[in-house]
Amino acid sequence: MFSRLRSDIQCILDRDPAARTAWEVLTCYPGLHALVLHRRAHWCWNHGLKWLGRFISHSSRFFTGIEIHPGARIGERVFFDHAMGVVVGETAEIGDGCTIYQGVTLGGTSLYKGVKRHPTLGRNVVVGAGAQVLGGFMVGDGARVGSNAVVTKPVPAGATAVGNPARIIQAELDVKREEVASKMGFSAYGVTQNDDPLSQAMRGLIDNAAAQEHQIALLWQTIDKLSAQRHEADCVPGDAARSEHFEADKLNQLVGK
Q1: 208 in the same domain as 105
Q2: For residue 154, which of 9, 25, 137, 186 is within the disulfide window of CB 3.0 to 4.6 Å?
Q3: pLDDT at 14
Q4: Domain CATH number, residue 43
Q5: 215-228 per-position pLDDT tens digit
Q6: What tens digit of pLDDT does each residue of 89-136 get?
Q7: Residue 137 is part of which domain span?
Q8: Alpha-carbon distance 222 to 209, whole Å?
């Protein structure tokens, strides 16, 4: 029990720059209190003490502002940051290392009992403030859900979901952008639909630079190929050789300009 508590405290110290000491986290972080109380409620729920589990959950909601159904499953090193107004449904599952901000709802869209109604979050998922994740689907490992997004469909691992209704931003594009940004000495704090105009302009410049680098690489590949063909043509007399020379010279003049 104490090792789990130490792990919870340490994960908050690692992820929240405002957290200064373990004592401060233990006494002043409602997200930690909600987790500790949920484990008691979840134990009661699984051992047939349904009313007691619900009562502990209700008391936790009163003291922390975080409503977690005692039937929900929560992994290790989960961080509810600020977390006022968070709602986690009965069949929801939260994987290890997830971070959930204030106002998030992990809710259901079905009224049928005994079925999976609420989402499952994989490992290291980040759900932004005010996001609504609704339905019995999977949000893959390392995925991100933007602030105020409304997600009703599965999110692939490593992808980002933003907007209402949510759309998926391919993870490959984000990785490519970050690689180019790191070369330029710039990295945006986050990629969301409603970034300020300066961030949008910088992303446009980064994408444009990446496209130009790709075009330049293709151009040099073509030059190398034509140079090799020209070298071979030096040994071939006749019109074919003259044609090869003409094409290569034309491309070299273009590049020279």
Answers
A1: no
A2: 137
A3: 87
A4: 2.160.10.10
A5: 888 888 888 888 87
A6: 999 999 999 999 999 999 988 777 778 899 999 999 999 999 999 998
A7: 2-168
A8: 20
Phi/psi at 107 (nearest 5 deg)? Answer: -115, 180
C-alpha distances (whole Å) from 219 to each of 50, 147, 188, 207, 224 are 68, 41, 30, 19, 9
Half-sphere exposure of 255 (CA within 13 A, CB side): 17
Q: Strands 126-127 and 99-100: what pairing?
A: parallel
Query: What are the CA-CA distances from residue 31 to residues 11, 28, 93, 115, 120 (Å)?
Result: 12, 9, 17, 28, 19
Q: Structure tokens of 161?
A: 């979901």
Residue 103 in contact with residue 84, Cβ under 8 Å? yes
How many folded domains does the chain comprise? 2
Q: Comparing C-alpha atoms, which of 13, 188, 17, 12 is closest to residue 100?
A: 12
Identify the domain boundary among 134, 168, 202.
Answer: 168
Same domain, 145 and 245: no
- Looking at the structure, tell me whether residues 32 and 116 fall in a common domain: yes
For the sheet with 87-88, list strands across it: 67-68, 87-88, 105-107, 132-134, 150-151
Pair 161, 174 in one domain: no
- The number of residues in the chain equals 257
Co-location of 150 and 205 in the same domain: no
Q: How many C-beta atoms surround the C-beta of residue 138 within 10 A?
A: 16
Sort strands 167-169 and 160-162 into parallel, antiparallel or unpaired.
Answer: antiparallel
Is pTM beyond 0.85 here? no
pLDDT at 1 over 70: no
Provide the phi-psi class of 155: left if phi over 0, else alpha when psi is between -120 and 50, else beta: beta
Going by C-beta distance under 8 Å and a sequence separation of 6 or more, which residues neighbour residue 249?
none
